[in-house]
Amino acid sequence: MDAEAEPGGTVPRRILVVGCAGSGKSTLARALGARYELPVIHLDSHFWTPGWVALDREPWRAVCRELAAGDAWVMDGNYGSSLDIRLPRADLIVFPDLPPALCLARALRRRWRFRATGRPDRAPGCPERIEWQFLRYIGGYRRRHRGRLLAAIARYAPDTPLVRLRTRRQVREFGRLVSPVA
Asked: What InterPro entries does the record tag this protein with (predicted)?
C-alpha cells in the first residue's frame, strides 16, 4: 500500500485499526502512523484509568467524539460502544482478522515481554495482565464480536476502504508496505 497508490489517489488521514486483542492492532497503528506521519491514538490509554477502572459510557463516548473529530490520526482499538462515532470519520479501516489461537499466543507473549516495564501504549497505572475473562474474550472473538464489528462497518462506513488481513503473512506484507519511507 503505497501512499501514491491509495484509493482515489489520496493518502488516508484518519485510519481506524480494529480487531481482536493480540492481532497486532497497536503494531500496525504505529507503522501506519510513522508511514503517513500521523498521530497515533491508542484507545486503551483513554478508556482505562489507574487500576484498570473503565470510563462510564457517556464520558467515554465524549472522549471518542473529541478524538475522532481530529483532522488526522491513526486510532487503534475496538470498543463497540463508540464505533458509530469513529467509523464514519475514518478514511481507511484496517482489520487484522487472525485466528484466535494466534491472537492468544501473541497476547501471552506480549504479557511476558512487558511483565517488568509495562506497555508504552497502556494507560498509566494499568500494568499488562492476563485474566481468564480476557482469554475468553480472545477465544470467542470470532464467534461473538467479529460479526458485530463487520455489521457496524457496513452500517456506519459502507464506502470506506477496508483492508482485512486474515493471515500472519498478510499482516507482515501489509506491515512492510506501510513501513516508513527511507
From this structure: Cytidylate_Kinase-2, P-loop_NTPase
